[in-house]
Amino acid sequence: MVLAIGSIHDLHYVHRDIKPDNVLLDANGHIRLADFGSCLKLFEDGTVQSNVAVGTPDYISPEILRAMEDGQGRYGPECDWWSLGVCMYEMLYGETPFYAESLVETYGKIMNHKNCFDFPSDPGYEVSQEAKDLMKSLICSSEYRLGQHGIEDFKNHAWFANLDWDGIRDSVAPYKPEVSSPTDTSNFDVDDTDIRTSDAVPPTANSAFTALHLPFVGFTFTQGSCMSDLGSIPLDQMSSSKFEEERLQQLEDENQRLLKNLTELKRLLQNQGGLSGVGEDGRRISPTSESGNELESQLKQQQPSDLKREITTVDGEGSQRVREMEKMIRLLKQEKEEAQKDKVDAQEKLKLQDKELKDALGQRKLAMAEYTEVTDRLSELRQQKQKLSRQVRDKEEELEVAMQKIDSLRHDIRKAEKLRRELEARVEEAMAETGKERKLRERSEEYCKQMEEETEKLRQRNLVAGADTSAANQSHASQEIVRLKGEVEKIEVQYNESLAQQQSRYNLELASLRDQLQEAESRRDALEREV
């Protein structure tokens, strides 16, 4: 394929329709590139100018589409290398890289090949990196496309390493088709849908015109053919008929001249027949009359015999030639009418083709308008996508910040819970201490009551024992009672002060914890609403 395309470029032509359907195999299994209907001669600068999108849509290059858009684009043989890359992709992966259901979508993918061209991720395709690099070097922008220096670019590529370029035609092909004759078409798959009957019907104006040769209008010149009307008359016969006509015209002219001379002689003889006398005039008239009579007799003798026979012969031949010429004239008129009908049919076909061309141009304009609209819509969608992507990124950043805030609040809540549990533990400890102090106070009160009872008992004993001893003991007991009461009151005052301090501190810490907990819950609710 590379050598075939390179040979076309060496001849200063560009193929413009490279695809697998245009590649044939000869009897030896080597390829032959076909279908040169889209070829164009390259200008001196190595480019061509065309505003028509030629080729098959799946294999067409972006520079051809771009030239069709502005109508003034020029491109060179690099479009064939693009098509070669598409063919290679199709042969390796089973489908073209820019296949789509609609023509506009296919053209859109080709124009946006930088973003749309990619290799399948299916692990079932095992393609080497060298082959992928070659396809990337062919399906790319024309400025960087492989083949700008001819087939030397391909010879230097890694995928063609160790390939004998000069002896490739002499090598054995991997597949050799089986053919029985040069006209064997058994290797071609022809669908029944491809066989179409001709839509041309013969005109009904002239029953003699069968229109069997209507597809060959413009190729009906058959001079010298035995089947032609002109061919039925030999050329020498046509030339002899013209000679006979000229001969007949000469004989008729001579006959008219002789008849005119005869009439003049008769008139002269009649004018001189009434004169008499002898003399020079009579002698002159008599020879004249004699010569006139002789001439008349000769004419009369010649006219009935030779002239009449000759005229009869010439008339017969002339009438036959006239009939033949009339027949030829009728045939020529018929051919002229048929040619005029063919001309009218050709003009109608030309008008129909002009109409079809206008319709095709209109469809192309509609397709281009649709393509432009789709491209604009695609650009808008891309802008919207970018805008939505930015919004999503912003929301993700906000969500991340909110999650960080939530984590911080959760951490604060855990700290607050921990502090609350500590305060509750401290409150419980304070309550336990308060209980202990209450028990201690109760014990002190019981102890005071016991002391009072003992004092009362001692006082009663002292009353019985004696006044001196009782007075001393009573004084001692009173002092002891006073001391114990002072200690009890002191302990009670300390306990009350300590209890009041702990209670106030507990209330303050509990209020602070409640405020912090309420603030944390409000912040958590706000973050949950934001999320």
List the helices and strands and how they pair.
Blueprint: H1 2-10, E1 13-14, E2 23-25, E3 31-33, E4 40-41, E5 48-49, H2 62-70, E6 74-75, H3 78-93, H4 103-111, H5 113-116, H6 129-138, H7 152-155, H8 235-272, H9 280-465, H10 467-530
Describe, in plain words, how this protein is organized in 3D:
The protein has 531 residues and is mostly helical. The chain has helices at residues 2-10, 62-70, 78-93, 103-111, 113-116, 129-138, 152-155, 235-272, 280-465, 467-530; strands spanning 13-14, 23-25, 31-33, 40-41, 48-49, 74-75. Among the domains are: 2-179, Transferase(Phosphotransferase) domain 1 (Transferase(Phosphotransferase), domain 1, Orthogonal Bundle); 402-530. Helices cover 66% and strands 3% of the residues. It has a two-stranded antiparallel sheet. A hairpin with a 5-residue loop joins strand 2 (23-25) and strand 3 (31-33). Helix 4 crosses helix 9 (280-465), helix 8 (235-272) packs antiparallel against helix 9 (280-465) and helix 9 (280-465) packs antiparallel against helix 10 (467-530). The longest helix is centred in the C-terminal third of the chain and has 186 residues, at 280-465. The model is unreliable at 205-223, 225-240 and 274-289 (pLDDT under 50).
